[in-house]
């Protein structure tokens, strides 16, 4: 597919002569679809809107339908409520701007989005898809039959889409093991190889706001990592070891919200969304003494969670896939990782 800036309106192929009939609008519904897009994708999106409206669909979009005097968030919430479906035009700029706005204020939309089918359109390959959309089936703008496939989805009544993959907020297992946008040190440009980066604790990053509700919990975790820089030592191995341990301490806190950090480098921290509940239960089953089981579980988090998070983020583990079934569907669970590490290493 061509770069997004070179996509012309001519690239949108005409709809076939035989098109589905739009479903009837019910009480409280004013539109068949609300389209959210970045202003940089204006030309492509508006050509699409014209074709959809020519087929009888009522389309809602911010340039025309947002009411003056109301905030962007208020307008978006109202438009989603009044629309049968939500179409997201996914491009790099959309993910950086519009989706961050949606995700950072997801509490405003959660109730209505849980009942609205989401139709993601991938405008170009390689877009970093947000966590809460990664399980959905995408329509690709480069597909020659894209418009007819899109029209078929938009003209299918919502109740007939209940079992489809265009519905949001599937069970958490859908997201388990997914990498999030990493954290970069604010002073990465001036770091020496034996220095630990400083990471901002002013607010929870956009990609974590839906997951971590208690901002103070996140700040506490980041401050644990930042404290390593106070240990003045020009031994690079010492800094790496201390940083991993500090991240392990942070993970004891963040794992309650299904988030783990991993040291990718002294200036970059990997983030993954992963539930360790079943692994923690596995510790309890293996050790009859509950106090001992909890102590060993936290010790495992302290020494091994940073490496585990990095492996999940890179989708690569330094050992073959275990033959036994773990607690992470299609991947290596924390129990299995700890077991493999202890077979070649010891508690530090």
Automatic annotation (TrEMBL):
Listed GO MF terms: signaling receptor activity; triacyl lipopeptide binding
GO biological process: inflammatory response; toll-like receptor signaling pathway
Keywords: Membrane, Signal, Transmembrane, Transmembrane helix
Database matches in SMART domains: TIR
InterPro entries the UniProt entry points to: TIR_dom, Toll_tir_struct_dom_sf
Subcellular location(s) per record: Membrane
GO CC, alphabetical: plasma membrane; receptor complex
Pfam families per the UniProt record, alphabetical: TIR_2
Entry superkingdom: Eukaryota
Domain TIR: 29-154
Name by which UniProt lists this protein: TIR domain-containing protein
């Amino acid at each position: 597919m061509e770069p997004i800036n070179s996509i012309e309106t001519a690239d949108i192929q005409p709809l076939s002569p035989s098109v589905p009939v739009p479903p009837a609008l019910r009480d409280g519904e004013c539109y068949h679809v609300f389209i959210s897009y970045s202003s940089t994708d204006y030309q492509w999106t508006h050509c699409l809107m014209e074709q959809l409206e020519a087929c009888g669909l009522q389309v809602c979009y911010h340039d025309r339908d947002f009411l003056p005097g109301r905030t962007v968030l208020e307008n978006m919430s109202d438009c989603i409520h009044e629309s049968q479906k939500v179409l997201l035009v996914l491009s790099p700029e959309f993910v950086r701007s519009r989706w961050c706005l949606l995700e950072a204020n997801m509490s405003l939309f959660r109730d209505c989005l849980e009942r609205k089918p989401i139709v993601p359109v991938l405008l170009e390959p390689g877009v970093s898809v947000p966590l809460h959309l990664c399980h959905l089936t995408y329509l690709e703008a480069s597909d020659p039959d894209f418009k007819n496939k899109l029209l078929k989805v938009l003209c299918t009544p919502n109740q007939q889409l209940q079992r489809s993959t265009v519905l949001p907020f599937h069970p958490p297992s859908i997201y388990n093991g997914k990498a999030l946008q990493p954290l970069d040190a604010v002073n990465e440009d001036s770091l020496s190889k034996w220095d630990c980066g400083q990471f901002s604790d002013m607010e929870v990053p956009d990609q974590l706001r839906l997951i971590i509700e208690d901002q103070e919990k996140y700040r506490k975790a980041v401050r644990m990592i930042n404290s390593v820089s106070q240990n003045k030592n020009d031994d690079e191995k010492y800094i790496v070891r201390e940083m991993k341990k500090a991240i392990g301490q942070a993970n004891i806190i963040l794992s309650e919200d299904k988030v783990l950090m991993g040291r990718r480098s002294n200036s970059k921290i990997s983030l993954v969304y992963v539930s360790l509940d079943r692994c923690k239960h596995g510790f309890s089953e293996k050790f009859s003494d509950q106090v001992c089981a909890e102590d060993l579980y936290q010790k495992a988090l302290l020494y091994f969670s940073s490496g585990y998070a990095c492996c999940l983020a890179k989708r690569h583990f330094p050992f073959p896939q275990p033959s036994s079934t773990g607690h992470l569907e299609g991947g290596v669970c924390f129990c299995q990782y700890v077991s493999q590490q202890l077979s070649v290493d010891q508690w530090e």
